[in-house]
Every structure is written in C-alpha cells, then in structure tokens.
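Lab notebook, bench 4. Still working through the backlog of constructs that have no structural model yet. Next entry is a single chain of 186 residues. Request: give me the structure tokens for it.
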Amino acid sequence: QGDGGDGGGPFLGPGLRVGFQGLLHVEVFRKQSTTSNCKNDENLSDWPDQGNARFTVEEPIVSVRVVARVEDAGGVMDLLSRKRGTEISTKPLDEEKWIFDAKVPWAEVVVDFHDKLKNVTAGFGSMDTFEAGYTKANLCKVDIVLQGESVEPLAFVCHRDVAQEEARKVCKSLQQVLPRQQFVTT
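Model written out:
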C-alpha cells in the first residue's frame, strides 16, 4: 500500500512493504478485521499496554455452514474447534451428508479455513459464511524484537491462546531469512 513511510524501518528497509505485498495485504486485512476503541488501522503503535482494563477488543464473527460427508464429521468438528468455533451444531442433510453450523471469528476463516476444510474432507466439503456481528475477543499485540528494539512492521494481533506459538513461527522465519551474525531474534 505504500504509505510513504520507511516500510520496515532501519532493520528491514522499505522492501518489506513492497516485496511481500501479497502477504502484507493478508496481514493488513487480518489487522483491520479487529475493532477497538482506539484507531482501527494497520499502525499497532496505538495499541495500549497489556494491563489497560478500559481497553476492549471486538472481532467480527461469521456463521459458517459446512456441508460434508458423514465419514468426514470428526475432521470437520475438529477443524471448527481449532478455529475457535462456538455454538457448533450438526444435522443430517441426507444419509450421506451432514450440515455443520458454527460461529467462527472472521480472522480464522479468511486465512486458510477453506484449504483446511478441503484437506479434512478429501475435497468433498463445501462452506458458506454469513455475517454474525461482533464479539468481545481475547486478542493481544505481539511485538517482534530484533537486537533489543521492537520492529513495528512485524507486530501483529492474534488470539492470546496462540500468541506465543505464532510469535515463534515469525521468529523461526526471520532466523531462516536474516543472516545469523547480524541479528538475535527474541
């Protein structure tokens, strides 16, 4: 989106925003798919400190309807649970297919839900989504630190339960890309 800023800052340079536009757009969409009582933009420097009790975050929720074969029921139920699905219900469509309904955060659906659904149903599952409003979310800002300094373009928001796991993935990727002698990632 080229905002005229320094992009990746002193560590990553302007190429961060230009070179990874596809992934950047997905991440910006994920960041903007949360709302709060502070500005809703891709700049997470406005995110308040962790202990701020007056700060609440809501995330958009969608109703997901999946149609899948009976033999894929376990995989579909597991997928809906892993994607933080709530109000999960099932009903038979006929002798061979079931309908699965659940409320799932939009951020969990937009990234890879469809691909994972196709994997667990051997390509036979289908899905549809409908807006279902917003709900209070247990989200947190994750900062990535290089050489003792937080690198703002690498900061992201995710559910608190998976924050450490997601941060480790980012750091692992950075360790593979950045020359070892230049940076220590934490």
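Notes after review: The first helix runs from residue 9 to 12. The helical segments are 9-12, 15-19, 21-32, 73-82, 106-120, 163-177. Flag for follow-up if needed.
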